[in-house]
Design goal:
By secondary structure, this protein is mainly alpha-helical. It contains 8 helices and 2 strands; from the N terminus they run ββαααααααα. It folds into 2 domains: 99 residues, Rna Polymerase Sigma Factor, Chain: A; 90 residues, Winged helix-like DNA-binding domain superfamily/Winged helix DNA-binding domain (Arc Repressor Mutant, subunit A), CATH 1.10.10.10. 64% of the residues lie in helices and 8% in strands. Helix 2 packs across helix 4 and helix 4 runs parallel beside helix 8. The protein is elongated, with a radius of gyration of 23 Å. The termini are far apart.
Length: 217
């Protein structure tokens, strides 16, 4: 497919071993553009397509994504997601694909899809809240360093406290707070589960706060 100057949502295909491979296939319009009207009287219904997807029909999945990706993009924009909307759209379709075998046409397909999209957005909000709490805890630790007469060397006190952390905690803290990586990115760098990264970040902030408090005594 020749480049047209339009952006692409990187969708994925099934690879040997049931792994997921990403490949830019389907172009999408800019946020809040008019959603294309597809004459479904002449095409398979969403329910029929999902039944095909459950049988690993890639063409059926392609049609579903092409039919609904603009709706999903508009949904996230209207719900206040002004950055990384494309990532959330991709995550929505990834979840749809991963849950394909469990789909049951009890309700309208778009209802099912919006339920997934809502879950994706809630997960994003929770991650942002956790990150905000971590940043607040780090700011509090810096304040504790300053209160003990270290105002002129606050950064030095924090740096020493960070260096005193165990290696496995320090690297998570550095990658998150200083390098700005997301937990999932840190997990990929360290080759550990994302949940382990979250746990180590909690421990790191706890150790850091305690170390700075003891310094001020």
């Amino acid at each position: 497919m020749q480049a047209t100057g339009r952006k692409y949502i990187p969708l994925f295909r099934e690879l040997p071993g049931n792994s997921i491979g990403f490949c830019p296939i389907y172009p999408y319009n800019q946020p809040l553009q008019e959603e294309s009207a597809i004459n479904q009287d002449e095409e398979p219904s969403d329910q029929e397509l999902m039944q095909g997807v459950a049988r690993d029909d890639r063409e059926a999945f392609r049609i579903l994504v092409e039919r609904h990706q603009q709706k999903m993009l508009n949904f996230f924009v209207r719900m206040g997601v002004y950055t990384d909307q494309e990532d959330l759209v991709q995550q929505t379709f990834i979840r749809l694909y991963r849950n394909r075998a469990g789909y049951r046409p009890r309700a309208k397909f778009t209802t099912y899809l919006y339920t997934i999209a809502r879950s994706v957005r809630i997960d994003r909000i929770r991650k942002e809240q956790r990150r905000g709490r971590m940043q607040a805890a780090y700011a509090e630790a810096q304040t504790l360093a300053a209160q003990g007469g270290y105002a002129s060397d606050r950064k030095g006190a924090v740096r020493e406290a960070v260096q005193a952390l165990p290696e496995k905690l320090r690297i998570c803290l550095v990658l998150s707070v200083y390098q700005g990586l997301k937990y999932i990115e840190i997990a990929e760098v360290l080759e550990i589960p994302e949940g382990t990264v979250k746990s180590r970040m909690h421990q790191a902030m706890k150790h850091l706060k305690k170390g700075l408090s003891e310094t001020n005594e």
